[in-house]
Structures are given as structure tokens and as C-alpha cells.
Amino acid sequence: MANTLKTAGMAAVLTAVIVTPVFGLQLVRQGARTLMEPRWDLVALACAVVFVFQLVRPWLARALAGLKLPTLPATPTKGRRWIPALAIAAAVIWPFFAGRSEVDIATLVLIYVMLGLGLNIVVGFAGLLDLGFVGFYAVGAYTYALLYHWAGWTFWEALPLSGAMAALFGFLLGFPVLRLRGDYLAIVTLGFGEIIRLLLINLNWLTGGPDGISGIPKPTVFGLEMARRPSQEGGATFHQVMGWTFDTQHMVVYLYLMALLLALITLFVSNRLIRMPVGRAWEALREDEIACRSLGLNPTRIKLSAFTLGAMFAGFGGAFFAARQGLVNPESFTFIESALILAIVVLGGMGSQLGVILAAIILTVLPEVAREFAEYRMLMFGLVMVLMMMWRPQGLLPMKRPHVELGLAPGASGPARATPSEAESGAGRTA
């Protein structure tokens, strides 16, 4: 009991230290003056909540130890192949019956799904901590914006080059970090993301500086603009050709379907990659680089491939982001975006594609729902991540890795050995 009281008291003191600058001392404007208004009641409330929680935490741990949460029934093997098809069909049909704001939020979710799947290649599969992933995102967005303003390229013409340019930057980033791992790798990649943002701010003649680039057109439909009037005299819009009445909802749905298509392509390609030799090489690098090298694999090529392919998907997402917003500026590509994308990968479960999709939905939709708590969104975000690291560090839907369990043969008394048939079946499961 004494240790529990000591722990609860220390937790309350640390809470007071953290909460006081955030909630206890608030700035209030009174005319031309700015005054500091202390709110000690909020500090005391936070300390009391933490103190009580730490006191009852051992009792809660014992009470919940034997609690078994309900699990979903196992899906039959024959019906599993139809689940993705039904989910895709529902995702395609849903925007035609939803409101504009819901479809717009869903489009944003799909952008983060694309980014999360791209970063999952680097962090989840290859085990390389990347804190500058937003830099590749910015390269893709600015590539499309510059190609339009300088060469008049359309979205579909600039999309492959946006991905290729981001992949090139990922390839170039891979060389300085070949010998780095862990914290050192994180620091270098963080610096890379900040360098990209500062270059976008200072290259006024090319990027427009802090103001960015505006007037970026939306994607066309088979070369036809989806707008009320054509941008060029004598042209025709998609609605005029189809004989439809123009509605802004049509463009919102079209952007959603495009984001869904790009997210599905990203999911399909990454899913195929992890089943190819390069995917096995990523997993070997993640588990043990020395063992990976001893097997005859080249860690240099493996790291470069992970950075390059992950950056390519970020470039695609950046180009679509620029087309959707119609405006790009450096403030859209700050470190908080990299932290959010990394949080999506960690929260969903590193290496788990379904987990990344679920985490992207949660971390994108919840802030939009809780806009009235805009001042406390980052605090709640941090609290959720801390709780996840305490109770479920493997993520919401961790990736299931095949393994072989060896047991004693019937009537055997010596060490556990697998029979030839068991070894073959085990090898088949691990293949």
C-alpha cells in the first residue's frame, strides 16, 4: 500500500508540472493588454484524477485479469474472398447516398490511408524509423503544381512524374542513412523533412514562398473538365457532354472515387510486394540486420528499395492532395503531419495493412467530430497514444506472423523434436 501511495503521489506531482503551463496559466486579452489568468482548479482536478487512478490501478488490473473480451466469429474460408469485394462495393456506392461533408472527410481519410500504407513499407516492413515522410508528400504536391504552372500539364500527366520525383528524393535520402539506425536515423529523416519545408519557403521564384501556389485545377474526366463552365473558349465540360445539370456534389464524389482508386492501388501493390522476395528481405532487415547480411542479402539495396517505394506512394498522395485543395503551401507539410502518419502506422500495428486503414479512419475522423475541443485535440491525441503504448503496444490489429511450435512426440521423454512430416508442414506454414 505504501508503494502505491508513493507512486500515486509522484504521478500527481508530475501531472501538476505538465498541466500547469497548459491549463493553469491561460492568457486572456483585455482590450490592448494581455493578462495571465491562473486556473488552479483545473490543475487540482487533473492531479486528483491521476492520483485516484493510480490508487485503483492495481485493483483494476486484478479485476480485469480474468476478463475475456468477446471475439468476432471466425469467417469461413470460402467466404473470406468475398469480404474485400463487398467492402469495396460498399465504399463505391456509399458516397452517392451521403452528404457532402461526410464524403469530403472520407476523401481525407483515403489520403491518409495512402500515406500510412507508404510509410508502413519503411517503418512496418523494413523497420526503419522515418520522421521526415511528409517531405516526400510535399515533393509530390509541388511537382504537380509546378508542372501545371510552368508546362501546363494536367493531373493525369503529372501524376506518374510526381510519384517518380518523390521516389527519386527517397532514393537520394537513402544514401546518407545507410549506416544509421534507431534514433540517429530518426534525427536525419526529421532534418530532411524540415529542409524540404524550408526550401519551399525560401525559393520564392519557384515555389511562391510562404504563399505557395494556387489555381491548381481539379482532375479531368477523359480530358473533360468537371466544372460549370469550360476554362477555354469553345471547350466543353463533362456535364455538357453528358447532358447533366452541374452540381458541386458531383466533383466531391469524383474526387472521393479517385482517392479510393489510388488507395486500392497502393494497398494492392504493397500487399504484393510483401509476398515477393523484396518483401521477405524487408522483414529480414527488420528482424536482424547482421543475420540479413549473413544470408547474402545486401542491406544497402534493401534500405534503398524501402525508402524509394514508400516515397513513391507519398508522391502520389501529394499530387492528389494538390489537385483536391487547389492550393499548396509549406504550412501544409509541417512535422505534425509526419507525426500523424507515423502515429497511424504505430496505432494500427506496424506491418499490418488492415490496422493502418483502421487507424487512419480513427485519427482522421475523431478530430473532425471533436472540433469543439480544438484546443485540447493534441492533448487527447497524446493521451490516446500513451494509453495504447501501455495496454496494447502491438497496435489495434497487429500483423500475424507465421510460426512453428514444436512439441513432444507421443511417448517421447527427451527434448522436443519435430517429425519429418511436422517439419515439412511447419516449413509450409512459414513459407
Descriptive account of the structure:
By secondary structure, the protein is mainly alpha-helical. The chain folds into 2 domains: 2-64; 85-391, ABC transporter involved in vitamin B12 uptake, BtuC (Orthogonal Bundle). It has 18 helices and 4 strands. The protein has helices spanning 2-24, 40-65, 77-80, 82-93, 100-125, 133-151, 155-174, 183-202, 204-207, 238-242, 248-273, 277-287, 289-294, 299-325, 335-348, 353-369, 377-391, 420-430, and strands at 25-30, 33-38, 213-214, 327-328. It has a two-stranded antiparallel sheet with strand order 1-2. A hairpin with a 2-residue loop joins strand 1 and strand 2 (33-38). The protein is globular and about 85 Å long. Residues 416-431 have low confidence and may be disordered.
Summarize the structure.
Helix content is 66%, strand content 4%.
Task: Supply the CATH architecture of the largest domain.
Answer: Orthogonal Bundle
Q: Can you summarize the main beta sheet?
A: 2 strands, antiparallel
What's the count of strands? Answer: 4
Question: CATH class of the largest domain, please?
Answer: Mainly Alpha
Low-confidence stretches: 416-431
Order of helices and strands: HEEHHHHHHHHEHHHHHEHHHH
- Residue fraction in strands: under 5%
Shape: globular
Protein topology:
Blueprint: H1 2-24, E1 25-30, E2 33-38, H2 40-65, H3 77-80, H4 82-93, H5 100-125, H6 133-151, H7 155-174, H8 183-202, H9 204-207, E3 213-214, H10 238-242, H11 248-273, H12 277-287, H13 289-294, H14 299-325, E4 327-328, H15 335-348, H16 353-369, H17 377-391, H18 420-430
Antiparallel strand pairs: 1-2, 3-4
